[in-house]
Design brief:
Distance between the termini: 44 Å
Helix content: 25-40%
CATH architecture: 2-Layer Sandwich
CATH topology: protein ne1242 fold
Number of strands: 7
Shape: elongated
Strand content: 25-35%
CATH class: Alpha Beta
Radius of gyration: 17 Å
Structural class: alpha+beta
Largest sheet: 4 strands, antiparallel
Length: 96
């Protein structure tokens, strides 16, 4: 996986690939065992996992899984924005 940065809905999404520094890490890297990339939204690490089929899920958004980590982060931000809009609408209507 390559490092990637993107701004989406005024949030900064970043996939960081840890640097390989030790000989042991280089050996693992050459054996095609890539270190797990870090996912950050607005510089906050977002915990995630990977399913056996290779798709990713976020611990706080586990009912959706996608093959692309950046796409999953965008979906998570959409979900948070939709939830905030619903809550704001409910408050406007007096539903608390």
């Amino acid at each position: 996986m390559k490092p990637e940065r993107q701004t989406y809905r005024d949030h900064r999404i970043e996939v960081r690939v840890p640097e390989v520094t030790s000989e042991r890490e280089r050996a693992a890297d050459s054996a095609e065992e890539q270190p797990k990339p870090d996912l950050l939204i607005d510089d906050t690490p977002i915990p995630y996992g990977q399913l056996p089929d290779g798709s990713y899920y976020l611990q706080d958004y586990a009912y959706d899984s996608r093959r692309d980590l950046m796409d999953l982060a965008r979906g998570y931000l959409d979900h948070r924005a939709d939830a905030a809009e619903i809550l704001a609408d409910r408050k406007r209507r007096g539903g608390g």
